[in-house]
Amino acid sequence: QKLAAECQSAGYPGTLIPYKCDLSVEEEILSMFSAIKTLHQGVDVCINNAGLARPEPLLSGRTEGWRTMIDVNVMAVSICTREAYQSMKERNIDDGHIININSMNGHSVVPQSVVHFYSATKYAVTALTEGLRQELREARTHIRATCISPGLVETGFAFKLHDNDPERAAATYESIRCLKAEDMANAVIYVLSAPPHVQIGDIQMRPTEQIS
User: Fold this and answer.
1) Angle at the Cα of 73 (from 43 to 177), degrees rounded to 5?
2) How far apart are CA 185 and CA 158, in angstroms?
3) Which of 138, 144, 182, 202 has a 20 to 30 Å separation from 96 between CA atoms?
4) Residue 159 pLDDT > 90, yes or no?
């Protein structure tokens, strides 16, 4: 709500409407889409941005942490995609767009045990986006599917991953000049502004100074 007020006071076009939703709970996701239908008719563009990593290695990780990553990074993406498509279909929207915010960890496995399971969930997003593209073609729609795969972006991500070591989390963003949220927003705008006959499959982007 604070961010919505900031956007309005800054004079940005459009309106940011906050809605509380726990993406690990399907009932809350469905409630959110129902509210969107009631208040705004439906969804034309869906950007699946939520994602998190828990420090749970493959050899010693807790099942609870793995399940949380699956629920948010894979299941929520799939549920939101399904509901967004159904919203477009019932209103005959043929030029919608579904954008999954992926990760470079969805294309390569780095030698850091705390993100190996997270990487597996992002590999799933890579596969889900291509599978979605194929199904949209089979359905004879012009709805497009894209994923955007960033490297290190300065957000609260590291503070969630290293929630017991905030100094380590802060150091993650101090080691190099990271991507910013604005860089991601610009990539989304680029994807959405492509001509109707152009479908961008994946944008892979890193900070220039990032090694892996």
Assistant:
1) 100
2) 20
3) 182
4) no
In a domain, 17, yes or no: no
> Does the pLDDT value for residue 56 go beyond 90?
yes
User: Looking at the domain assignment, is residue 32 inside a domain?
Assistant: no
Give just the sign of the alpha carbon dihedral 70, 148, 26, 93. Answer: negative
Which of 12, 85, 118, 190 is catalytic? The answer is: 118
Burial category of 146 from C-beta neighbours within 10 Å (exposed 0-12, middle 13-18, buried 19 and up): buried
- pLDDT at position 166 is 83
Q: Please say if 123 is a catalytic residue.
A: no
Residue 141 lies in a domain: yes
CA 187 to chain centre: 13
Range of the domain at 145: 42-205
**Which has the closest alpha carbon to 122: 103, 136, 141?**
103
Q: What is the pTM assigned to this prediction?
A: 0.93
What is the CATH classification number for the domain harbouring 194?
3.40.50.720
pLDDT over 90 at 115, yes or no:
yes
Question: Number of folded domains in the chain?
Answer: 1
